[in-house]
Design goal:
16% helix; 175 residues; Type-B_Carboxylest/Lipase; signal; 7-stranded mixed β-sheet; AB_hydrolase_fold; Carboxylesterase type B domain-containing protein; alpha/beta; 7 strands
Length: 175
């Protein structure tokens, strides 16, 4: 039993070290972002590109995001935006603080590589969907892992929170 426990501990330690070695950090205008290696790509998930759109910012154009202290954990999907259609494709976590994007790039990419950028806005008639998508069909690693391209998928406010039109609310506040 003792030898088995020691072997298991070594295996777990090796897995933890392997996962830690798969982490990658980049510095952005708003702070440091920690992503992860996925297949032969580097992915950064759920990076906010605007301030929280709830409260006083509801129905207003997006405001700049303040810099965050420390390191932003970009290893998990960000929240999806509120939506009226509740089907299997709705993200698990939804909130008004949903203006986030995901970035995939080929493993080992540097700023000097000057790769083209492909931006993907999910469908859903401006009423439903997210940058996570059903069954990970919007996972940019499928493209960034096969071609020298950076892939970005972004959320935008849906339904009345992004596209309501009245005499006082004019314009597109989805993005």
């Amino acid at each position: 039993p003792m030898a088995r426990t020691a072997a298991l501990a070594l295996l777990v330690a090796g897995l933890v070290a392997s996962v830690a070695a798969q982490s990658i950090q980049v510095t952005t205008d708003t702070g440091v972002v920690a992503g992860s290696v996925y297949d032969n790509t580097e992915q950064f998930l759920g990076i906010p590109y605007a301030a929280d759109t709830g409260g006083a910012n509801r129905f207003q154009p997006p405001q700049p995001r303040a810099a965050w202290p420390g390191v932003w954990d970009a290893t998990k999907w960000g929240d999806g935006c509120y939506q009226t259609h509740h089907n299997a494709d709705v993200p698990k976590n939804i909130s008004e603080d949903c203006l986030n994007l995901n970035v995939w790039r080929p493993k080992g990419t540097t700023a000097s590589d000057k790769l083209p950028v492909m931006i993907f806005w999910h469908g859903g008639s401006f009423a439903e969907g997210s940058n996570q998508g059903p069954f990970y069909i919007y996972r940019g690693s499928n493209l960034a892992g096969r071609a020298p391209v950076i892939v970005v998928s972004a959320n935008y406010r849906l339904g009345a929170l992004g596209f309501v039109v009245t005499d006082k609310l004019k314009g597109n506040n989805g993005l």
